[in-house]
Give the backbone structure.
Amino acid sequence: MLSLSFTEVYLSQLIGKLVIDKIGKKVGTVTDVLIALEPGFPKVRGIAVRRRLETVIIGDDTIVMMNKEIVSLNILRSEINQPELSGKEFFLRRDLLDRQIVDINGAKVVRVNDLKITEVNNEYRLMAVDIGFRGLVRRLGAERGLKRIAGWFNSDLPERLISWDYVDLITPDLSAIKLSVSQGKLATLHPYDVANIVSELSAQERSMIMETLDTEKAAETLVEMETELQVSILEGMSKDRAADILEMMATDDAADVLNEMEDDKAQELLNMMNYEEAVEVKELREYEEDEAGSLMTTEYIALPQHLTADETINELRRLAPEAETIYYIYVIDAEEHLAGVLSLRELIVARPDTKLSDLMQLRVITVGDEASVEEVFNLIRKYDLLAVPVVDNDKKLVGIITVDDVIDAALPRRRRKY
């Protein structure tokens, strides 16, 4: 176990420092720090030391003191032996320094400028990642001078640290080690934030991040990305995984991304999707880009007018997970013509035995499936709607267009800024 005389030290302060044995003879200089790959704050397993023409690993159990001035051992230099390693260790300088990580608090990709090691219960532990300017200055050996200059102006040189428990490995492959939030931490972020993070990474890193997400989260994240990037990510996955994600997406979003693929690749994925989902997506793909049908989703709730309020609420409990929105309940007749509409609020406050035919509003604002996107935008803005139903030439309900999809069409750069 380590017997430490300090509380913390940075990797940059250790690199190049003199290592002496128990009688004060020079062993070499520190070139790196070995860390055990484990949950929480990982333990320092040893240091890499350059001596003469070779580099040796010195185990943590032989270190008496390690700080920004010197490292001392409790053995003679002739007694140094390579410690037994588990294969789950990695080097801070070689594997982490200057690599990209995800700051889960800021939901963005940042660079590792330095690493902070702290004494905890007589052991060294990796505690934090320095992502700030101060870390770069420290590595240049100019931290003290810059702090002094900042003091002249009654200012400070702030640290920007990310606690290691907000960081995890995407892959245990130490030959290509990358850092990100773990699957559990990533799942706590909004899909927009995850998309923003993923969009800043390389193609390989994007694939690794997307593989950590469950199908639902992956679908929600993909929707927030630029279409070109959606295509790239889906084409980089196994076809089974890509088809599962497409099934989880709203039908209009799935149609949009498939429209950007080569026809043979899009058709292959459609053939692997659930039949009913694939049919709906195929129908949406038939519309031109500037037609209302291209914006609509077929995931809505439409119920027969003979149902009572109580029966309708029970149906909503069953159907809601499959609907994109339940702001409105659409009421249809036996031939699936749109007969009326009511809000969720109107349904909740109604008497349980009241039929939908008595609750619904007969005057319904609709749009034709071949109407222009501009017409849809104007209707939603004019009547302050959260969604507008879409009907075909026979006045049958074929889908709905939600306000967020209209905004995306009117302001196409809102999501596509990465």
